UniProtKB/TrEMBL annotation:
GO terms for cellular component: cytoplasm. This is GTP cyclohydrolase 1. InterPro entries: GTP-CH-I_C/QueF, GTP-CH-I_N, GTP_CycHdrlase_I, GTP_CycHdrlase_I_CS, GTP_CycHdrlase_I_dom. Gene3D superfamilies: 1.10.286.10, 3.30.1130.10. It comes from Pseudomonas indica. GO terms for biological process: one-carbon metabolic process; tetrahydrobiopterin biosynthetic process; tetrahydrofolate biosynthetic process. Pathway: Cofactor biosynthesis; 7,8-dihydroneopterin triphosphate biosynthesis; 7,8-dihydroneopterin triphosphate from GTP: step 1/1.
Length: 186
């Protein structure tokens, strides 16, 4: 697998007009293949294995928010990074997720080729299916290298996407409380 990838990276270097045999590039195909595999390691993970039973009984029915989860992903259109932050909230109905698990769920989906809209939805639906929450909200704000380094070259534009499920969709109060808590409402 890694062999095959590094072979293709060698061809990419050639295609770019480089000489893959020059000293500085000798190990680049191997390193690039390894890096790319790491950046896409979410393909090898499942929700069950990520959550790994870290679901705890709780009578808390107040909104749980995990803010500013660092996010690193690759856009599926250009294979260029988009990086930013995710904010995730849910309203438990008897079960809460272990603290680090929300971040790990974000990471599992981010470490695949993505578009930001789908990533946002996949995270929301995963949290919903694991916790059976009364509602889930996910907001992602990210900067896309494919916009910053090429094309329109808009260095400061931040793309914002959100998915609201259940109570966050039905109740504007709940939604506003969430947006206020992540500092996104006026
Ligand atoms: Zn792109």
């Amino acid at each position: 697998m890694s062999e095959q990838l590094s072979h293709h990276y060698r061809e990419i270097l050639r295609g770019l007009g480089e000489n893959p045999e020059r000293e500085g590039l000798l190990d680049t195909p191997k390193r690039a293949a390894k890096a790319m595999q790491y950046l896409c390691h979410g393909y090898g993970q499942t929700l069950e294995e990520i959550v790994n039973g870290a679901l705890f009984e709780s009578d808390n029915d107040e909104m749980v928010i995990v803010r500013e989860i660092e996010l690193y992903s690759l856009c599926e259109h250009h294979l260029l990074p988009f990086i930013g932050k995710a904010h995730v909230a849910y309203i438990p109905t008897g079960k809460v997720l272990g603290l680090s698990k929300v971040a790990r769920i974000v990471d599992m989906y981010a470490r695949r080729l993505q578009i930001q809209e789908n990533l946002t939805r996949q995270i929301a639906e995963a949290v919903q299916s694991v916790t059976q929450a009364a509602g889930v909200a996910v907001v992602i704000e990210a900067k896309h290298m494919c916009m910053m380094m090429r094309g329109v070259e808009k260095q400061n534009s931040v793309m914002s996407t959100s998915v609201m499920l259940g109570a966050f969709r039905e109740s504007s109060n709940t939604r506003h409380e969430f947006l206020k808590l992540i500092g996104r409402s006026n």
